[in-house]
Amino acid sequence: MSDKPWDFLIQGAKVFDGSGAPIPPIEDIAIASGRIAARGPDLDASLARKVIDGSERWAMPGLFDIHTHYDLELEVAPGLPESVRHGTTTVVIANCSLGLAFGAQRTAGADPIVDCYARVENIPKSVLRATADKVDWDNPKAYLQHLNTLRLGPNLVTLVPHSMLRIEVMGFEASVSRDPTEDELQAMEALLAQALDDGYAGFSTDALPFHYLANQPNTHKTIPTQFARYPEIKRLTEVVRQKGAVWQATPPKDSTIGTIKTFLLSCGRFHGKPLKTTVVAALDVQSNRKIVRLARLLARVLNSRLLNGDFHLQALAAPFKVWSDGAVTPLSEEIAELRTLNEVELEDRDTRMQILNDPDYIKSFKAMWMTGKSGFGLARLKRLMRLEDYAFNRTLADMTVDVCPLVDWQGLDFQAVFDRVKAYNAGENTAFTEAEKTVLAEYFTAVRDEGDFMLGMLRAFDRKLSWYTVSANRDEAVVRKLLMDPQLLPGFNDSGAHLTNMAFYDGNLRALKMASDGGDEDVAYMVKRLTRDPARVFGVQGGSIEVGDQADITLIDPFALRRFDHNNSVRRQFREEFQHEQLVNRSDGVVSLVMIAGHPAWSGDRFEQAFGQEKMGTVLATTF
C-alpha cells in the first residue's frame, strides 16, 4: 500500500460544483477513501497515488437520473452500465407506483411483478419472471438491505411504490377492484411511514389512464394505483408531507379538474406546509400543443407565493422518439383498437391475426385511424390545430420503418411505403423487387385508404416490424426552454424500461449540450439542475463536490460534447443479461471519467475492470 494520503488527483479542470456559481474556477480535486479530500489550484501532485489530467475538461458532481425503472435490471446487471457510461452516478428507482419493495408478492396465483410491469414498461415477461424468481425478501427494510449487497454501479434513491403497497395490504384482486377499508388505509399509512423512516426517499403513484395489467383475466384493468381515489391519495401523501419526503406522480391526463385538484396537494397554503412533488412530464406533444403550456402554467401557479407549492415537472432533454414493435408501444395503450392487440401475449401472433381479420375490428380500427383526417367537424379542426386527444401520432409521413423483414422498406417513412402500395395496386410501372411483389400481393391488394394500409402492415409483419416516430419535443428551442425553466427538473429518461421502444440514457448529456449554447453561466445552471437540485428534491445526500462529500465525479470533454450528435446516438444491441434486444445510446469520447464513491467506473471509451465486479454506489441516505 502507498503511504500517499490521496488516491487520486484530478488536475486543472474547470469545476462546475453544482452550486450554480456562474464563473467556474480552474481547480484540482483530490480524492481519498472515497471522498473529496481537497479542492483548489495547484494542489501537490506528489501526495496522490494517481494523477488524472483534467485540463480542457469540465469536472462536476456525478449526474442524477431522476426517473428510471431499473428495479429489475439491478437484479441481473447492478452496475447499470447504460447509464454510468453517460456520466450518471445516481438513479431514482420505483417510479410510477411500481417496484420491488415488498418482494415478489406471489399469492393466490397472482404474479404482480409480471402483471404490472410487462405492459406499462414494455419489458418481456420472460425477463420479469426470471427476476421475480430470485426475490428472497418480503418487506421494504429487507429490500434496502438487499440492494446494498449488490455490486452497484451508481447510487440508488428508492421510492415506496403505491401499486405494490396496495397489493401488500389489500391483496392483488382487491387492489384492482375496490377502495380500501379504513383498517387497510391505516395499514398502508403505517407501512409507508415506516419505510420512509427506514430510508426510502418518498412515494410514487401513477394516474396515466393507459397503464394496463398484462395477465389474464385482468388485461382490461389498469394497475392498482389507478383504483385509488382522491381521499386515499390525500391520506398517503399527508404521511409523505409530514416526513418531509417527496411524492412522484403522473397526472390524470384526461381530467383537467382532476389534475388541478390532485396537485394542489403540493401547496402549503392549503395543507400547512409544502409537499415536495415531482411529476411526469413536461413534453411538447406534437398532436396537442396546449399540453406543455398548461403544464408550465400549472407549475408557476402552484409554486407561487400565494399557494406556496414545491412542484417540479420533469422535462425530457430529447425528441420523444418512440419505437414500436408492430402495435406494441407504450403510446398505443391510450387507443382502444391498438390496446386490444397489446392485451394478447407477445408470442401469440395467431390471436392477433384473428383480431386483425375480424370485420367488426376492421371497421372500428379504420374509423379510429381516419378520425380527423378528412371532411369537416370538430375532430378535423382539432387535428389541424394540434389539439387532438391522442399523444399517438397517426401521420404516416412521421412514421419511419427501422427494421422490417422486407428490407426494401427499411428507412422509408410509412407515407412512402403507402405510395408504393397504391402504385402497385394501380398497375403503375414502378420498379418493385420480387420480395416486395410477394408481400404486396399477399397483404396489400385490398388497400383503399390509410386504415387499410396500417392493417396490412400489422398483418404482414406483426412484431417483426420496428418503426419509430417523434411524438413530442420536435423543436429543440422549445426543449431548451423547458430544461432551463426553474419550475421544472431535467429528467423523465425512463431508463431501464421499454427495452425496444425508447432510449434516453444520455439525456443528461443532451441537457448539458443544449445549455452550453449559453456559455459557462448556463452550463453551471444546468449542472446544478442535474445534481444539487434533484438531491434537494429527493432529500438525499449528494449533488456536490465539497471537501468531505462522497466522491461522485463526472469529467466531460466540452469539445466532444459540442460535436456529439445526440439525435443519432441510439443503437440496437443484444443484452446477455436479458437474453433480449435493447435500444441503448452511445456517447463515447464525451465522458472522460466517471467516478463513484472514489472508484473509477468509466474512462474515456471503456469501463474500468472493477466496474460491475465491485460495489461502488450505495442506497443514499435521506436528509429529512
Q: Any overview of this molecule?
A:
This protein is of the alpha/beta class and 624 residues long. Strands 1, 2, 3, 4, 5, 17, 20, 21 and 22 form a 9-stranded mixed beta sheet that branches. Helix 2 runs antiparallel to helix 3 (125-134), helix 14 crosses helix 18 (450-461) and helix 20 (507-516) runs antiparallel to helix 21 (520-530).
List keywords for this structure.
624 residues, alpha/beta, Urease, subunit C, domain 1, TIM Barrel, 3 domains, nine-stranded mixed β-sheet, eight-stranded parallel β-sheet, 23 helices, 34% helix, 18% strand, globular
Q: Summarize the amount of helix as a percent range.
A: 25-40%
Structural class: alpha/beta
Shape: globular
Per DSSP, the total helix count is 23
If classified by CATH, what would the architecture of the largest domain be?
A: Alpha-Beta Barrel
Rounded to an integer in angstroms, the radius of gyration calculated over CA atoms is 25 Å
Q: Major beta sheet, specifics? A: 9 strands, mixed
By CATH, the topology of the largest domain is TIM Barrel
Based on the structure, what is the oligomeric state of the protein chains?
Answer: single chain
Number of structurally distinct domains? 3
CATH homologous superfamily identity of the largest domain: Metal-dependent hydrolases
Stretches where pLDDT is under 50 for at least 5 consecutive residues are none
The percent range for strand residues is 15-25%
CATH class of the largest domain: Alpha Beta
Beta-strand segment tally: 22
Q: Give the integer mean of the pLDDT values.
A: 94
Please report the distance between the alpha carbons of the first and last residues. Answer: 39 Å
